[in-house]
Amino acid sequence: MDYDVLLCNGLVIDPANSRNGRFHIGIRGDNIQRVWEADDHMPLPASKMVIDAKELIVTPGLIDLHVHIFTDYTPLGIQTDRIGVQQGVTTVVDAGSAGVETYPIFLEKAVTSSETEVLAWINISRLGLCGGLSELADLSQLAPVETAHLMKNDSRICGIKARMSASVVQENGSKPLYIAKQVARELEVPVMVHIGNAPPALHDVLELLEAGDVVTHAFHGKKGGIFTEEGSLLPEAERALKRGVIFDVGHGTSSFSFATMRRALEFGIKPYTISTDIYRQNIDGPVHSLAMTMNKLLALGVSLDEVVEMSTCNPARILRKEHEIGTLTEGTRADISLLRMKKGPLELTDSEQATLTTSSYLQPELTIKSGKVLKCV
Ligand SMILES: [Zn+2]
Q: Where does Zn(2+) 1 bind (predicted)?
């Protein structure tokens, strides 16, 4: 046998390799062995399993840059595979559910028993979200030295999370972010900053961020977002984008607005990454899944190629793992998503209860994780 799994004739969209067309993909063990253009005149090589993907869109395994998976220990956590491989997502990045003190339990509960690959933004607060949702209100709970030490010894942790909104930081303004940035700069890793209700004001938060740092919830519909009340783009947001700060969707229960996203697109601003901020309280709406969040961007006019890019190679770049994930490069691990473009109509809802109706939408059908074929739910 040449291959363990052969994916035939799928419409492959692999922005990392500028592929968009009909390709065959041969998998051996947990690796992508070969990717080649489909040609009806050539016989197919022998394979233990053949998947006819003619009707399907084949992408690198989807990556969700912002999720919460620490069940039982945090108020938000959801079971990892439920939002991972069961929904076409091969890698999830937990966004600050764990801090340095709770990280060992996080590994045990949310990571080791999952098929889905788990990476993490570590919370700069020592307990993460395990001590409640005001984790940056007491500066003595911040753990820069211990966090730096842990990160040096764990390649699963890709960056630092700091949630910058009034209910989280209370009297502390931007101080927690300032501390997180000192650690991040020392280790040359990005920070992911959650933005929400002020204080701290968004312009103060943005001024602390550098190229590669991530603003999640960038397109929320609350007061004090990236647009002024008169509708112009905040000068600090424009400057941040220019110097390479990343704007991420981070949908969440209350953090994605069609109106804000539409206005941003009119200004020529697209999200660099699409993430869900999915957790127990929003999986049944308005978030549902990464695919459904991708569908919302598609419905707002972002192209399929770009939406795939924003959910595969772009998050991989932020995580500095673009040579391992988010790509269908031969020799890399076989993490692949197979999606069907279904006919609508389907009504989509944002965090402000605004709706829009789409005529077609993506639905995950199969996930291949490290060469293993899994059916989506
Ligand atoms: Zn979150």
A: 66, 68, 161, 277
